[in-house]
Amino acid sequence: MNSGKLHGGQTPSQTVGPYFAYGLTPQQYGYPLASIASSDLRSPEVEGQAIRIEGRVLDGAGEVVNDAMIEIWQADPQGRYAHPADTRGGNIAFKGFGRCGTGTDPENRFVFDSVKPGAVDDSQAPHVNVIVFMRGLLSHLYTRLYFADEAEANAQDPVLQSVPAERRDTLIAEGKTAGGVTVYRFDIHMQGERETVFFDV
Amino acid sequence: MTDSRKPYSPRDWSAHPAIIAPDYKSTRLRGATKPLIPIKQTLSELTGPVFGQDSLGDLDNDLTKNGRKDGEPLGERIIVSGKVVDELGRPQPNMLVEGWQANAAGRYVHKVDQHNAPLDPNFFGGGRCVTDENGFYRFYSIKPGAYPWGNHPNAWRPNHIHFSLFGPSLCTRLVTQMYFPGDPLLDLDPIFLATPEKARARLVSDFDLSLTEEEFALGYRFDIVLRGPQETPMETPMETA
Questions:
Q1: Would you say the ipTM is above 0.90?
Q2: I need a labelling partner for A70 at 20 to 30 A (CA). Which of A18, A51, A171, B87 fits?
């Protein structure tokens, strides 16, 4: 039924389910398999403003989701991606990818340690690409985190400006700086009045 | 800017499940309710994390060996292999494929799985591999068992293996499940059935005698199609449901 259908179109998405942790985030959850990525994107060789991104995933009843997985993908502080399609060549030491489940933090937050990304091009404001997976989500959802302290750049960003004005603040994380690290809060609301904007990319 | 780079085709919502599929109860409070907002792909979407052979451990693609403590795992040994291509049929070499599954009794090692079926001390259930130069991946494993879940009375998940792929960019990210041919539970499973009917067969592997290793393991073939280049520029927003 499956083979011979290589030209039949995209393989459908299915939910990550409740038991992804030992396959996708094994070290974070204490399973005996090396992880391909963690929630710490920093390395000593990467200079830039240290940031932490933390937040919760909330369902339509306002309950905190304790079995979601969040992935982030971001540029380095100079706005370059560690990928062949970005021909500018990024920081060798900065991979820009993080993965975190919400099942190990006492408050069921996702917490990423990283550096603040630079602007990728002349039009876009600095941002972090975010992918949301969980039991009950049959297709993963894409969103973006923008920084509240980049108001001028945000006002010019074509993606942010394509979002209805009253929903834009669901994408903007407020930061608080302490001890040299700026902590940005980014709660993801799956439903409700503050439903996070998700993109069809 | 990125205008010289070809964008990827959109997610084909006639093939992917709806964001909210009421028969799969967890979607009701966890699926987004507002339409997804289409955006023009930029370098942020045309790039993505790169993983190669160096991200693998020696036994990562052999689930019959990577969880052993004092013997072999119980169950029917299987080989699961297939080709990863884009929508134009072009092989996708050097792509990471992650997988995880229940053991032969239908029990996951995950700490929150409380199903009253035995754990297998010699089976872990998680692994990964990278596609070869022709786009093929290959796992050795144990056929996973069915297990009950709380969606509705007497609900059972069909035998399945979870797969996670990145492909060449953020756009091509895919998490899916592979099912087995002839499983009577498929017609009763709200997760499988949430997939539009025309695309369901793409989730069902084929028994493949040519993959089978004599006197060792049965072979199943599961090909995976990722989003490909967009052939003609299109400005039409995609519907989400």
A1: yes
A2: B87
